[in-house]
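Q: Please design a sequence for this.
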């Protein structure tokens, strides 16, 4: 790879740039105006959602499987330290090398050092969420090492100088015509160009990607990956994927560096039986994954002869210390909650300002990153709390409970009043609401007060509901109608029909 190729690899800041993103409510408004993206999202999420429902309906003991997944992951949370050490021992005995990384900086430093030790200037890469979480590609580029994405959707995102918008299908926001245009414009700049006359049929687009990637697979001496699971009992890593690119990255190069979040542990090999049923059905609506690769250390003369795993914390032990919030660590990144979420379907992944988008992103990101930024404090509010995500989550994460829990934390953070958090009238309004709701007499007085407002504003002017109102009330009424009070309160009705209140 020439230095010019490397220069070009560094993407220009895309529209969905995650660093310094505006808070969710602002970026969601911008996303909503992108009608092409909305159409792409609706089509893609509806297709995956329906496929999932079909294959999940075939499994008689689906609910029992979900409970098993939940309980295995809960056990992992309770004994994480022991399982990690067991994994380290078994992986090391099998010839692999384990590295521990407290945070993103440490993880990237380890990966860069390992690649530099090989003398290589490029790596091929299996799709991995944790490497996006720690911005590994950017760190490698800064060290003048190119990281080539080999998953088709990740390739589209990388060539388009874009950011992933979905956990499993990162280019979900793009349609075929856009993909063709990206391939024609960018592919030749980084390697094998697309064939002449490329059209936008899926088979031809996939063929162009295959030709482009083959050259990189055959040339690369080093690869990086994540892992869906780490098996403590055997010291094995597991990657599930659909395209075979992962299998190429895990077997062809001489050195393999796997970067994995510490929560990916499962205790025993038999536990995979549960997750290898839950994951493909929940994620892509398939009965089983086309490719499941399991590797345990080094096999002489077969596959990579140097195998490293970098175990990354990066905020996970903080999440584990929260008895309610820790349920988010059960997540197996299937994306079923994204595909069913009415908010995600309309705004897409970039609006969340995080590599983890949708309902899981709204709870996991502020837990991992903390509540210091505007965008992270806004994420727990990126939901209508409809609860559809709770129903589909294969490990039964009570996502809406966690959203409310995180909202509470945001309110508490605001109360502590750091100067950079803007003041709003919300705490005062909530104090008034709390006073009203706390006592039946207060509620009765409030009922009389609202009846008076109703009489003056509603009946007097024959108004049925409040429409748009001046600022600051417009912040509520611009998007919602506020109905008028009913003819009479429940108390009045009771008094009239049943006599005095007890
Ligand atoms: S929270 Fe549940 S549904 Fe959402 S990605 Fe994680 S495992 Fe899948």
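A: Design:
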């Amino acid at each position: 790879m020439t230095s010019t190729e490397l220069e070009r690899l560094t993407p220009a800041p895309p529209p969905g740039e995650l660093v310094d993103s505006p808070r969710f409510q602002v970026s969601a408004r911008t996303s909503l105006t992108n009608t092409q993206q909305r159409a792409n999202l609706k089509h893609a999420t509806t297709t995956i959602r329906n496929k999932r429902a079909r294959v999940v309906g075939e499994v008689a003991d689906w609910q029992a499987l979900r409970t098993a997944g939940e309980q295995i992951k809960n056990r992992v949370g309770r004994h994480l330290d022991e399982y990690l050490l067991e994994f380290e021992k078994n992986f090391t005995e099998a010839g692999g090398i384990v590295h521990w990384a407290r945070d993103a900086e440490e993880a990237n430093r380890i990966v860069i050092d390992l690649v530099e030790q090989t003398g290589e200037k490029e790596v091929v890469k299996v799709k991995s969420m944790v490497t996006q979480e720690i911005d590994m590609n950017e760190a490698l580029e800064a060290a003048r090492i190119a990281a080539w994405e080999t998953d088709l959707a990740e390739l589209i995102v990388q060539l388009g100088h874009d950011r992933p918008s979905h956990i499993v299908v990162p280019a979900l926001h793009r349609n075929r015509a856009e993909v063709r245009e990206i391939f024609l414009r960018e592919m030749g700049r980084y390697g094998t160009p697309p064939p002449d006359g490329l059209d936008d049929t899926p088979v031809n687009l996939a063929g162009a990607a295959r030709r482009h990637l083959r050259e990189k697979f055959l040339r690369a001496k080093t690869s990086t990956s994540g892992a869906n699971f780490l098996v403590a009992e055997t010291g094995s890593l597991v990657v599930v994927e659909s395209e075979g690119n992962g299998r190429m990255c895990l077997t062809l190069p001489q050195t393999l560096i796997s970067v994995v979040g510490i929560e990916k542990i499962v205790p025993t090999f038999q536990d995979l039986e549960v997750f290898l049923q839950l994951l493909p059905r929940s994620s892509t609506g398939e009965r089983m994954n086309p490719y499941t690769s399991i590797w345990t250390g080094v096999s002489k003369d077969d596959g990579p002869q140097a195998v490293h795993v970098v175990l990354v914390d990066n905020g996970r032990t903080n999440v584990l210390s929260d008895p309610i919030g820790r349920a988010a660590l059960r997540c197996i990144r299937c994306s079923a909650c994204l595909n069913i979420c009415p908010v995600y379907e309309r705004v897409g992944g970039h609006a969340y300002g995080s590599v983890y988008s949708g309902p899981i992103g709204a709870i996991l990101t502020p837990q991992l990153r903390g509540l210091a930024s505007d965008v992270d404090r806004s994420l727990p509010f990126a939901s209508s709390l409809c609860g559809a995500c709770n129903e589909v989550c294969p490990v039964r994460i009570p996502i809406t409970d966690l959203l409310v829990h995180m909202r509470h934390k945001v309110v508490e953070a605001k109360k502590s009043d750091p100067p950079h958090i803007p003041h709003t009238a919300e705490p005062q309004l909530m104090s008034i609401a709390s006073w009203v709701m706390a006592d039946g007499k207060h509620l009765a007085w409030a009922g009389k007060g609202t009846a008076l407002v109703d009489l003056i504003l509603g009946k007097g002017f024959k108004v049925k509901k409040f429409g748009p109102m001046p600022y600051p009330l417009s912040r509520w009424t611009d998007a919602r109608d506020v109905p008028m009070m009913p003819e009479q309160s429940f108390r009045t009705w009771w008094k009239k029909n049943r006599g005095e209140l007890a």
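Q: Thanks. Anything notable?
A: Residues 1-19 have pLDDT under 50 and may be disordered. The pocket of iron/sulfur cluster is lined by residues 282, 331-337, 360, 392-395, 397 (CB under 6 Å).
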